[in-house]
Amino acid sequence: MAQALIVAKIAAAALLGAAVLGSAGAQSYPVKPIRMVVPYPAGGGSDLLSRPMAQKLSEKLSQSVVVDNRSGATGMIGTEIAAKSPPDGYTVLIGSVAEVAINVAVYSKMPYNPERDFAPVTLVAVSPLVLAVHPSLPTKSGREFIALAKKRPGEIGYATAGAGSPHHIAGEWMKLLAKIDIIHVPYRGGGPQLVDLMGGHVHSGLLALPVVAPHLKSGKLRALAVTSAKRSPAIPEVPTLDESGLRGLDVSQWWGVLVPTGTPRDIIVKLHAEFIEIVKLPNVRASMAELGAEPVGSSPEQFGEFIRAEIAKYRGVVKETKITID
Description:
Strand content: 15-25%
Distance between the termini: 63 Å
CATH architecture of the largest domain: 3-Layer(aba) Sandwich
Low-confidence stretches: 1-24
Oligomer: single chain
Shape: globular
Largest sheet: 10 strands, mixed
CATH class of the largest domain: Alpha Beta
């Protein structure tokens, strides 16, 4: 009995010591540069969204924060690198809907598991896609586009930034709900997609808001609808596809902060607090607005629930639309 009491006291002391050390570790964190992995090229939407946050995080933590662009395989190369990094708080991922929620639904084999390999920190921003057309197409609304597509089955093409992208998911979901036959025309990114749409080589496209916004203002392209559940503050005059009769369609680009699973909870709490403050800063909000993104900020638990819901949603949509990549 006495021996058991001694063992219990030793165990209690060990736990107390670990708690003290953990607290001390969080207080001293960070003691070296932090790597912010962005799984897309420099100059893209994820990169442009990340850099102002990296700068502010560096200022707030008095430590260098390096943006590490690791592009390729629809975001999977950079995401795998982040997933396999030490869970010590010195690698953070700016993950988006594609590599966190959609890829797991469209690819049969994945080099990481977004739910198992990452701990959520916070959702930072959301942005819709835009259904836009070349001015030569005689449609001025989502309803008119659907009506025209029904009159001309198999004739109207829609451009996307690539097979398996959020743009592709939105287009196939639109086809399913509207019962229309439009042709998917995939491109390698938003740049080539935009060039061909503006040149009239393809009739319509689903484009990222920051890519298409300047050309909507100039009249070179016409916006018919956005793919999000609610209208975008950036173009509030443009209705949603849900309002156009496609009930329940909701595809948004979103970005959030994640860290490798096993990262100490107190470091996650610290990073969460810092990012929540960062997304409230006027200049960060302004930079997001320029990209057509709406700042969010959520708890780790809320972001985790959001990710699980998004994965379930896209698995369902991919199953119904029969989208296959490999």
